Amino acid sequence: MLKGLDPLGWQSFLLLDLVEVGVLVIDGETILYANAPFSRIVKQSLRELQAKTLRELGGEAWIDFTLGQSWADALPWPMPDGTDRWFEVSMKPSAFEDRTVQIATCIDVTSRMRAEGAEASMLQLLTEIIEGYPVGTFVLDKDHCVTHWNRACEVITTISANDLIGSDDAGSALGLGKGQLLADWVMNPVDEEGLRQKFSDRLWKSPAAEGAFEAELYVTARDNNPARWMHVAATPLRDASGAIIGAIETLIDITDRKAAEEELRNAREAAEQLVTERTRELREAKAALEVDITRRELIEGEMQQHLMEVTALNQQLHETQDRLVQSQQHLVQNEKLASIGQLAAGVAHEINNPIGYVFSNFGTLQTYLADLLKLLDAYVEAEPEISKPELRTAIASLRQKIDLDYLKGDLLDLMRESREGIERVRKIVQDLKDFSHVDASADWQWTDLQRGLESTLNVVNNEIKYKADVIREFGVLPQVQCLPSQLNQVFMNLLVNAAHAIKSDVRGSIRISTGATAEQVWIAISDDGCGMSPEVMGRIFDPFFTTKPVGKGTGLGLSLSYGIVQKHHGKIEVCSTPGEGTTFRVTLPITQPDPQLDTSATDEAKPS
């Protein structure tokens, strides 16, 4: 038996498994015992450690260390995988039976996990562990005598360790008879039938260890202590051969938990009672509901009548909506007429300019013709006397005076310019006619949008030419299925707004860009004018919203433009920076997705 340990003999070795540090009991080069933490660290079982000498397992350093006095050092321990595990070792000699053995406490310093108090004796270390455990814990030896009774047990039972250490009647502390502790029962070849009779249905096997049991125990009132419920768990202690040499039991006060369970049980019973009452109330409610159903059937009849009235009102709403659509079409046409009226002065100016120089040229032409007639008259008068030198001199002087050669050349130029002016007037009138064409009920057509842009530019030329230069960046566009006159109105609104956004004291630029993808075309109109704030941008498509002075704008141009683009299943986007300019981008599908479109009349115009 190890000197200085408790009288449990081999039980003391088994208790070493409770220590968190490795412990070796060494006799010369023989390892008598290695606790579980040490075996776990070096990954070798006690049987494997006992099969070899300490010299074979740890090396010469361990042999040299065991021959010295009590001191500490760090020693390597070769691992099966070829690495070393380092231990801080404290070695103390101790008498065991008829010889002296070495007890080595080994702290694994490889991972810096040091255990305090490694140099204390085994008994003191085990006592400190059990004493510091917050759960009530006591140990019985093979004679059922108490060897350890920690502080938590003293608090639970109000019995000090001094009164119980060495006693075999710890059952009295829990109000049980002698030998009736769960620890007493697990030390015998367990009689489960007897256990279950003792602890009724409050007993079960513990999964923590072989032969361990757990139970709930009602401890009756004793001295000044009230009755309590305890959760107890007992585990047998075994020596190296597997023989039971003692038992450990833990005590946990579960009185509060039991009280909570009782409250829960009472609450469940109250809930069941409540369910019964609710069921009765539901039956009563069902009877009332049947009465209510009868009443609701009467109400449903009234609702059916109201439904018929609502249907009639809905029909009236559809008729009103149709009238609203017609009104909207009239509004679009009125806006177009208002726009044309706004441009009337500019168109008149555009027509008057070419007509003016046509009239001027024809006036000059009339003078030239008069001079030519005089010359011809002179030739006629001089014809009988053409042989006279003085007459020939007079005729030559007259021809030189009117510069007959220049007159002939300038006459041709005047005729050409007059023709160009007249053709320009015809073109402007035709563009205005195309632009103002009423197409509210027209068929969808396959149209060249760039031609429509050029036509619209010609119509609004008077609004732009004094303020900005037009920059064309046209891409290749396919023909698009659309209502061309309505899109021309969109282009006109965007171009006129771009011109109005440019300050009067600065000549700006208006850039028109076009492009196409496989399924869409886009038209972007940009200006370098005053731009818009985010607040204004958020409202520009609202009907009747305008930033122009009263009388200068209706506030419907962009709203109607938005509606026209939506009608074409496209989208219109705006990007603007105050002080830098604005860009409107119109994106349109090449083919309209609406299957209701009547394109039968225009199939021949569809591009191949």
TrEMBL record:
InterPro entries: HATPase_C_sf (IPR036890), HATPase_dom (IPR003594), His_kinase_dom (IPR005467), HisK_dim/P_dom (IPR003661), PAS (IPR000014), PAS-assoc_C (IPR000700), PAS-like_dom_sf (IPR035965), PAS_4 (IPR013656)
Record Gene3D superfamilies: 1.10.287.130, Histidine kinase-like ATPase, C-terminal domain, PAS domain
Reaction equation(s) it catalyzes: ATP + protein L-histidine = ADP + protein N-phospho-L-histidine
Coiled coil: 257-330
One of the Pfam families matching this protein, by short name: PAS_4
Domain (Histidine kinase): residue spans on this chain: 346-592
GO molecular function terms noted in the UniProt entry: ATP binding
Top-level enzyme category: transferase
Keywords: ATP-binding, Coiled coil, Nucleotide-binding, Phosphoprotein
Position of the signal peptide: none
UniProt key word RNA-binding: no
Residues in PAS domain copies: 122-166
EC number: 2.7.13.3
Keyword field contains Isomerase: no
SMART domains registered for this protein in UniProt: HATPase_c, PAS
Residues annotated as domain PAC: 213-266
SUPFAM superfamilies per UniProt: ATPase domain of HSP90 chaperone/DNA topoisomerase II/histidine kinase, PYP-like sensor domain (PAS domain)
The protein's name: histidine kinase
